[in-house]
Design goal:
Blueprint lengths: L14 H13 L4 E4 L8 E6 L2 E11 L4 H20 L2 E13 L8
Parallel strand pairs: 3-4
Antiparallel strand pairs: 1-3, 2-3
Length: 109
């Protein structure tokens, strides 16, 4: 039986891939209606140092949700996704609630 030689090398993850993973994770979290973004804010801002991912995530929540619980759940879920999906360590995961979604006012006649 012959052993195959090990190949040395490295794998790099583009920051855009990490942003996508974070956005997908946030979108799947109960209470998050969407990622907040506009021309000056992409919705997720990353800082990566020594394989540690620090992120600022900007969200719009459903108005019926407990803001603190959703924020903590987002931090937990995003940290886990970073660890499990790309094998990097999560540092500071800062959640910024930019707004709440309220149902459209009903027309009363």
């Amino acid at each position: 039986m012959s052993d195959k030689p090990r190949v040395a090398g490295s794998t790099t993850i583009a920051p855009e891939v990490i942003e996508t993973i974070i956005k997908m994770t946030a979108s799947e979290t109960k209470g998050v209606n969407r990622i907040y973004s506009n021309s000056s804010n992409p919705g997720v801002k990353l800082k990566i140092e020594d394989h540690i991912v620090n992120a600022d995530v900007y969200v719009i929540l459903d108005h019926r949700q407990n803001t603190l619980k959703v924020g903590k759940k987002l931090q937990h879920d995003i940290s886990r996704a970073i660890s499990e999906s790309i094998g990097m360590q999560a540092g500071s995961i800062n959640i910024h609630v930019e707004d709440f979604d309220f149902p459209a006012a009903e027309n009363k006649q």
